[in-house]
Write a structure and sequence with these properties.
heterodimer, A: mainly alpha, B: about 220 residues, about 0% strand
């Protein structure tokens, strides 16, 4: 059992250490695709390092929420990492503490405190970004729910370790329309939740058009570093759920052996790179939607998720 | 329920039908004329793939010929004809207007899909899985395409809606009657081409006279 706890904590370490790299690669590829040189793939590490060494300035008008938010936001993806399969295909120590819906709630809690903190500092752009994030959030919520319902319907479980086996046993499940439609809907959700291009422009520095970025404007020093790092981890964790639980559960360690687990780390990272590549292509080829077109984007995701349930009804 | 021998291709036919349904939704959500055309071509491509899979499943050469006609007519000729006859309306990067907003329309389309499943349920009962997979989605595609025509205010997307109805009907029919005489398919494909040509020329005239293909604007008579 101690071993299971150890592997579980190893998962957390992998997510913490590799997530800035995934974001760095995304930024690099995006710039390369736009014909520019692009920053180094390790730039995100440097940014976080730099921010940790800067002074933190906190407005004396802000309350405890502003001070606590970075830690809560940072803890949320770590908690979710304990619940999902990152390296192994067998359940680990904390696997049955919460299911996919529980993980969604934990992430939502982090987002909630981030939003509160953005309003707390009384920066006008913070409140604007916060209310927009909430708008995207409540549009994304029904899609999340329907995706989880469909997963529940297919796998008779919402524990991610059990769900991931369902898509390949039997292998025909992998090619069922429900599977493909759910993956599409979840991919669209990731774009919306992590502020990627059709919904939000992560590299835009124009305050009026910002959604996600404007919330962290008031943070500085260690707080900003934690926020940035937590954003990377959230992105990494969501991609892990997409690739390991929904798209393809291959490449995970199936036995409790050091070799398999050591091998799983690069394999998982390679798998995530595929998802990062897909996001790069989406980001490079689409334009940001107007704010009120976001409802259409997430409406489409919702309809796709419900269509997955519908096609599942005529299951073999 | 009667059990039928399960063919390994059935799974892929089922998958194509799911993606086909997705394209029907895309026809509503597409914001520009070119986007509509791309979605239509994608839908036609999925239809062709489905025909090819069915041809392999039933070992039918007729269906292979149908797939050939599909590729020639729907994937190559129709986009080419539309680009030629309605070039100006096609390349305008104007956002299309819908009478009912996109999210609302998508929900209505979803309701239409459920309706399609509901009314085809008695037909599908006890049928092999290919029919249960394709028939409701063919019906749903027809309903959604009709709905698209009613909410679009522009000539070209309406025309693509009309063509999508044909796609949906075709999708439902190939699985119910895979041995349908080839001559019928040839006639249908030729008909569609004629429709595209006629409507393309018509929309070009509309564009020439009123400066736009927004038929929503053509609500009153002009005398001169």
């Amino acid at each position: 059992m101690l071993l299971m706890i150890f592997i579980n904590l190893l998962q957390v370490a992998v997510v913490m250490l590799l997530s800035p790299l995934a974001v760095g690669i995304l930024n690099r590829w995006k710039e390369r695709l736009a014909g520019k040189k692009g920053p180094s793939i390790f730039q995100t590490y440097r940014d976080i390092w730099k921010l940790f060494h800067k002074d933190q300035i906190i407005s004396d008008q802000s309350s405890w929420v502003f001070r606590a938010a970075p830690y809560i936001y940072f803890a949320a993806p770590i908690l979710v990492t304990l619940l999902i399969p990152v390296l192994t295909s067998y359940p680990l120590f904390f696997a049955f503490v919460g299911d996919m819906i529980g993980g969604g709630f934990v992430l939502a809690m982090g987002g909630f405190f981030f939003t509160l903190a953005a309003i707390d500092a009384a920066n006008p752009y913070g409140a604007m970004g916060a209310s927009r994030t909430r708008m995207v959030g409540f549009l994304a919520e029904p899609v999340f729910m329907v995706v989880f319902f469909t997963v529940c319907f297919v796998a008779n479980s919402t524990i991610p370790y059990i769900v991931q086996q369902q898509w390949v046993h039997p292998i025909t499940n992998f090619f069922s329309p429900a599977h493909i439609l759910i993956c599409t809907a979840f991919f669209m959700l990731i774009l919306a939740e992590t502020g990627k291009i059709p919904v939000d422009n992560p590299s835009g520095h124009f305050e009026l058009a910002m959604i996600d970025e404007s919330k962290s404007l008031e943070f500085s020093g260690a707080g900003a570093a934690l926020m940035k790092w937590a954003g990377c981890m959230k992105f990494f964790v969501l991609l892990c759920i997409l690739m390991n639980v929904l798209v393809a559960p291959w490449g995970l360690a199936s036995k409790v052996s050091a070799v398999q687990i050591a091998l799983a780390i690069p394999l998982i990272f390679l798998k995530l790179l595929v998802a990062v590549g897909a996001i790069t292509i989406v980001e490079a080829s689409l334009a940001k939607l107007r704010l009120f077109r976001i409802t259409a984007f997430l409406g489409l995701a919702f309809v796709i998720a419900v269509a997955a349930v519908l096609t599942r009804m005529i299951a073999i | 329920m009667i059990s039928h021998p399960h063919h390994w291709l059935d799974q892929f036919i089922w998958l194509t039908s799911g993606l086909f349904l997705l394209c029907s939704f895309g026809l509503i959500a597409a914001a520009q004329v070119l986007g509509c055309l791309r979605v239509y071509v994608m839908q036609s491509a999925l239809l062709t793939i489905s025909v090819l899979l069915l041809a392999a499943r039933y070992a039918s050469t007729d269906l292979l010929a149908v797939a050939g006609i599909d590729i020639a007519a729907k994937i190559i000729l129709i986009p080419w004809l539309l680009r030629r006859t309605a070039r100006r309306a096609m390349i305008q990067r104007r956002e299309l207007q819908l009478i009912i907003s996109v999210p609302m329309s998508l929900l209505i389309a979803l309701a239409l899909t459920i309706l399609a499943y509901y009314i085809t349920a008695p037909l599908c009962h006890g049928q092999p899985q290919v029919i249960r997979a394709e028939l409701p989605i063919g019906f749903a595609a027809v309903f959604i395409a009709i709905y698209t025509i009613t909410i679009r205010r522009e000539a070209l997307p309406q025309m693509l809606g009309l063509l999508a109805i044909e796609n949906g009907a075709f999708f439902a029919s190939i699985v119910v009657a895979p041995t349908f005489p080839l001559i019928g398919e040839v006639a249908a494909a030729f008909d569609v081409l004629m429709v595209v040509l006629t409507l393309g020329v018509l929309s070009r005239r509309i564009h020439h006279i009123s400066g736009s293909t927004e038929v929503g604007l053509l609500a009153e008579l002009q005398e001169d």
